[in-house]
Each structure stands twice: as C-alpha cells, then as structure tokens.
Amino acid sequence: MTLDTLLQRTDVWRGGRLPAAVKAVPSGFTELDELLGGGWPQGALTEIIMSRQGIGALRLLIPALARLSQGDRWICWVAPPHIPYAPALVNAGVDLSRILLVHPGAQQDGLWAVEQSLRSGNCAAVLAWPALDDKAILRRLQLAAEAGDALGVLFRPRHFVQRPSASALRIQLAPGINGGLSVSILKRRGGWAAGPVHLGPVNTMKAAATPALSSC
Amino acid sequence: MLPCRHMVHWLCIRAPQLPLEIFARGGNKEQPLAVSDEGRRASVLLCNEAAQGRGICPGMPVAAARALIRDLIIQPRDHKAEQAALHSLAAWAYQFSSQVSLYPPCALLLEVQGSLTLFGGRVALLKKLRTGLAELGYQVQFAGAPTPLAALSLARCQCEQMVEEQHQLAAALAPLPISVLDWEQTLLDRMDGMGVRRLGDVLRLPRDGLARRLGQQSLLYLDRMLGRQPDPQNLYRPPTQFKHRLQLPAEVEHAQVLLFALRRLVLELCGWLQGLGAGVQTFDITLRHRQGRYTSLCIGMHKESRDAEQFTILLRERLERLALQESVIAVELCAERIVKLEAQSLDLFGKTDVRGEVDLLDRLRARLGDQAVKGISAVAEHRPEYACCYSEPGHSQKDSSGRQRPLWLLPVPRQLKTRSGRPQLQGELKLQPGCERVESGWWDEQDVARDYFVAINPSGSCYWIYRELTGERHWYLQGIFE
C-alpha cells in the first residue's frame, strides 16, 4: 500500500486540515490564513485573547469583516468598548450599512444578544467583548454560531488563557516588533497549536491591502 | 318561486359556550369558572370543566355554587362583550370567505363554496377553522347547507351535519325541533299547542294554511330556508382598524402569564390582517389595571408582517422584561396603520426571512429597547467626533475623507497627563511623523483647532491624540488604533 492510497482512505484523518464542512473566511493575511487552514472559521466561535487593549486585535479581523460586509447579513457588534469609528471602517472597505451595534444594559442581556445574533442566521459575524468566565456559556455560543453559520469572535483579556473553552479557535495576541503584532494559535479544531506569526505595524497596514508579514 | 339549484354553500359556525368562553379564554383551564345569568335569583348559566368536575352544573343557584367551591370565579353574563367577541370572530373568519354574516348571539355564517378549492376541500377547511378557533379559545359546532337558514338551524340543534344538495334539505331539516327557528315564542307556543313539534310537521302543512296561521313572514322564512326564495345576507365588513379586548377571568400579577391571553389577540389580529391582505409594522398592547390605570407597550418591526409566530416571540421578549407594578384585569391589542401585504410577497423576502422566524433587529429591540440597536454612518465632516454618527441599521452614509483614522473612537476625548510638555499614556507617547491640522466648525460655535498625531506608548499600543491649538494647549486621547 502506497502512501497515496492510504491518504485516499476515508477513515484516515490528517491533522492540520479543517474538516470539509467548516467554511473559512480568508483573513486577508496570507500567513495567518495558512496557519488557520484557510481563514477564520465560519459557523464557529473564535476567541481572541489579548494582553491588553490597543494591541491591534480588531484590525486583525477587519479585512474579513470587509469581505463579509459585501454579503447581505449583519456584522453585529455587541457592547463594543468604544465607538467603532465609521470613517476608519469605510477606509478599510467595510460596508457600513451591514454594521449593527447592540448596546445592552446588563451583562446577561449582552450574552443573550450575542447568542441570539449568532443563532439568528441574520449575522455573518458577531463580535463581543464579554467578561464572562463560564464554560457552559461558551459552549452555547459555539453551538449558536454553528446553527446560525456565523463567525463569532470573542475578545478576551489575557487571564482567560488557561481556562477551558469550547471555542473552535483560540488565538493569542502579543505586541510584536516595531509596533507589530504577534499571533499564536492556542487551539484549533482539526489542527494544532501553532505560530506565532508576526504582522507588521499599524501604519503599514492601512486598509490592510498588502500587509507586511514575516514569519518566525 | 325561483327555479334555482343553489350551488352556494353556507357554513354555520356556532359557539354555544360564548358567554363563558369570553372569560375562560384569557386564563387557565384549571381555574373553576362560571357565568351567571341576570335576575333576582341568579343562577349558573354555564361553567367550565374544572367547575363541573367539582360539582357545579348549569342552573344551580349562584349562592349554592359559591358554597360548593370557595375559589370559584363567577362572572355575570356580559352581552356587550359577547357581541364584541362575535364581531372579532367575524373579523377573523373573513380570511376564509368574503361573505360572512353575523347571527347573534353566537353564530356566524360563511359562504364557503368559493373558498373550498383555495383551502383544499371541505374537510381541510373545517379542520383549519376548528383548530384556528380552538387556538382563539372557542369550541364551535359546524353545520353546512345550501341555504344560510338551513345551516343555522342545523347548527342550532347541535348536529354537525353537512347537507350538499338542495333537494336533500327538507329531509335533513324534518327531524329538527321547531325551537331552532327564529320565530317569536308565542308563535312557537301556538304551534306546539297544535301538535306541531318538528320542522317536518311544519313542512307537511298545506301552504295556504301555513300562510294564514303563521303569517307571510314566517312563510318567507321557510321558503328561504329551503332555497325556494333568495336570501340576501347582511354581509359583514371588517373594520379598517383593529382594537380587541380580552377580559381576564382573574387578576394577573406576572407579565409572562399574560402571554397566553395576548397570544389569542395576536391570532385574531393576524386572521384579520390575512382577510384584508394586509400587514402591520407596529401594534400596541394596553394592559388594564384597576381604577382606569393602564400600561402601554408598543411592539415594532422593521418590516410589515402578519406572522403570528413572529409577533408572539416579540411579545414574549417584551413581557419577560416587564415588571408589573399592578395586577392586570384585561388586555387590549390595537393596530391602526395597516399596509397592503400580498400573500406572495411574504415568501419573496429570501431565505433568511422565513415565516415564523423573527428578524434579529426586531427581537433585539423588543427586549433591549429601540435605542439599544443602532447602525453607524460616516459623515463628511472635518471634526472627527462629528464624522461618525449613529443611524438606523441598514441605512448608512459612507462619506470618508480617506485619511488615516483609528478603528476606535472614544465617546469623549480624554485629557492626557504631560511630563515636560510631552503627553503620557502608560508611559511616554512617541509621536509618529506627520501631523494633521483640523480647524473647523466656527459656524456652529463648536469650533475646533487641533493638531492630530499618531502616537505609540512603550508597550506598543497605538493611539490617536491631538493637541489643542488654542487656550491651554492640552493633549487629548481621542482614538485607538486597534
């Protein structure tokens, strides 16, 4: 039996390749896409763990959001920490008319809104900044994202890094060289922890057209 | 006499329990409930199964019934509410036939010949009607016949009979007691005295004798019933606005419990809309408390609809958030502005908007309030804080200068500390080359004169800051490059 025939077998699973059912949204960063097996997982929950604010977590997502905003589904932001600045989004190619901002009063309402948005099927992406630490809730959100075929992204502070999580993808961000960004994969469904890759600094990444990338 | 073979087929819908059901439909079945008639010695007119199961029966004096069940709710009969209920039933039934007529106190007649194909035959239509009416809280009896009066008479004697052909009418009606006729009691008594007890007896009498004894009016009645004379109906026209009320059998203290009663009003609303080929974008709920106080809720949708499931979900979200200050004695649903909405357009909205599914925006707004859900616009404006504003989701302006801007804007600029004149934010901020001067707004007295910089602090975070060109020349943080 040659290696090729072995690989053709349906009961042989190859690591590093996403299951065929999982769609990926290209991230806009070639090396990141390679690391992620095609891009951000659509119909799944992604956790972005960041050491602190202002590190560039959002810009990592913007090219994908710009792409998704060309469809007819919402890009829903639940309780964003600041105002998403419309002119910057326009510059990055995001269609503002697909942006939905939800400002729930209480945290419970926030989680409810995230789950509803993910599950509804009306959202291409749902971004949230929850302060929760509950495995069961993450599991529910992951299922909701699957049901609604949404790219669910939770931005979370660093101390959640050791907690168990049902998210399909967990990545960690750290400051890179010269104001750049270093991205590591902590967990990926159908793959291994990997990285980090380094993305260039903010100024060179305007509109995320041709991001400067260097791997190490 | 007209030589007509009536193809028109009339269906009578009769709700004999209507006096009880107008109260019972707002509450749960376990609660013993009775309706009493008026009069000096009031007695139980009708009672629900829960009351019957505990020994109450129609005709029992109210005092005795009270003694038997302590928590029995007894409502005096409300003729006005019954009449209103019959009108709401007609409004709901209008979706099945454009020819509906009212036969108070508790019957409707529908011309259904035209509707049969539309609703998939008689059996399917009756099933649809029966389930629909049960959901509204009414147990009904049907009877069908080629003429309205025959259908009414058959329904009154509680035999669920369908008479297809006109020539079968006389035989079908013969066994009915004469009490099913809308005739004066004295006339009925006189006939009883003559030994005429059944319709068959009446129909056997010679015509001229009948005319002499009963009068021309009664003869005409019989002719209409048998289809020998046309029977023009006083057709019901649905109102152009909807305002239905449901009296609760007992006071309700928890908002969620109201959903049961409100759902019935929603179904009435949707039936009415269906009949008009219309939809609504908003409807109002009024919760009535004691002493004329009330609570109002408005349920809004981004797109007109008549989907009862969607309305119910939105109502549930709203009620879950509602803390009632007082108990509720009645609920009302009111819809004023309707828009034409053809059946086919309901299916053309695409796959993300299937019936029974609630639009995400509507659901979020029902629970979180209208203000909690927004879109954003980019506006052609030099002052950064005015270049971005909230707008209705899906309707955004997209004007941008194309200059480099941060992804986050602070709602209010934050003044930065300085050390030796240099701005600080968790360490000293390193200004990047390139400064953008913004001077604008003198016309509305919100003028600004600022120099903007991109700045990076020691830990690598990137900020958008400015220095005022006038006054104290303070430094401010306005945006974050994420």
What does this protein structure show overall?
Chain A has 216 residues and is an alpha/beta fold. Chain A has a single domain (22-207), classed as P-loop containing nucleotide triphosphate hydrolases (Rossmann fold, 3-Layer(aba) Sandwich). In chain A, 27% of the residues lie in helices and 27% in strands. Chain A contains six helices and twelve strands. Chain A has helices at residues 3-8, 30-36, 57-68, 86-91, 107-120, 135-148; strands spanning 24-25, 40-41, 44-50, 74-78, 83-84, 99-102, 123-128, 151-157, 169-175, 181-188, 194-199, 213-215. In chain A, a hairpin with a 5-residue loop joins strand 9 (169-175) and strand 10 (181-188). In chain A, helix 5 runs parallel beside helix 6 (135-148). Chain A is globular, with a radius of gyration of 17 Å. In chain B, strands 15, 18, 19, 20, 21 and 22 form a six-stranded antiparallel β-sheet that branches. In chain B, strands 8, 9, 10, 11 and 12 form a five-stranded antiparallel β-sheet that branches. In chain B, strands 5-6-1-7 form a four-stranded antiparallel β-sheet, with helices on both faces. Chain B folds into three domains: 10-31 and 71-225, Alpha-Beta Plaits, CATH 3.30.70.270; 242-370, Dna Ligase, domain 1 (2-Layer Sandwich), CATH 3.30.1490.100; 403-481, no CATH class. Chain B is an alpha+beta fold. In chain B, 38% of the residues are buried. The radius of gyration of chain B is 34 Å and the shape is elongated. Chain B has helices at 18-24, 49-53, 62-68, 79-93, 122-136, 148-156, 169-173, 185-193, 199-204, 207-214, 216-225, 258-276, 308-320, 360-368; strands at 10-14, 33-36, 44-47, 73-76, 100-103, 107-111, 141-145, 242-252, 278-288, 294-305, 328-335, 338-340, 373-378, 388-391, 408-415, 417-419, 422-424, 430-431, 436-440, 448-456, 462-468, 475-481. Chain B is built from 14 helices and 22 strands. In chain B, strand 21 (462-468) and strand 22 (475-481) form a beta hairpin. At the A-B interface, helix 3, strand 5, helix 4, strand 6 and helix 5 of A face helix 14, strand 13, strand 14, strand 15 and strand 22 of B. Strand 6 of chain A pairs antiparallel with strand 13 (373-378) of chain B.
